[in-house]
Amino acid sequence: MARARNKVAAKQRKKKVFKLAKGYWGSRKNVWTIAKNHVEKGLSHAYSGRKLKKRTYRRLWITRINAAARLNDTTYSKLMHSLKKSNIDINRKVLADFAMNKPEVFKAIVDKVK
Questions:
Q1: How far is the C-alpha of 16 from the C-alpha of 13, rounded, in Å?
Q2: How open is the CA angle 17-21-27, to the nearest 5 degrees?
């Protein structure tokens, strides 16, 4: 008796992997074993990349806040300490946005906590 190999499911599985491998260079995009390995590796990097993105943006916000704070005769750490002491709850993302796009609002915040 012939061996039954669920060809429909196998094709769907391969199709899914090849769709994820679209845009890869060389045989990574069209050879099953190589594509499967590189897609798995890529997905594992994507997981850690999502965590790194948060870290990178926070660093960027802190740098922008510090640069704007120094233009207003203070430092990042002193500004954040003053904000916390004054019970002003404003996150770094919004503060960095004010520092970049609305410097007059940022200056008003700095003057309020001084």
A1: 5
A2: 110
The answer to whether 100 touches 64, Cβ cutoff 8 Å, is yes
Q: How far apart are CA 21 and CA 16, in angstroms?
A: 9
- What residue ranges do the domains of the chain occupy? 7-113
The structure's pTM equals 0.72
pLDDT tens digits along 21-47: 999 999 999 999 999 999 999 999 999
Cβ-count burial 47-85 (b if 16+ within 10 Å, e if not): eeeeeeeeeeeeeebbebbbebbeebebebeebbebbee
Contacts of 96 (CB under 8 A, 6+ apart): 60, 61, 62, 64, 65
As given in the structure block, the two tokens for residue 61 are: 């916000």
> What's the CATH architecture for 7-113?
Orthogonal Bundle (1.10)
**Cα 54 to the center of its chain, rounded Å:** 4
DSSP type of residue 91 = -
Which residue type does 56 have?
A: T
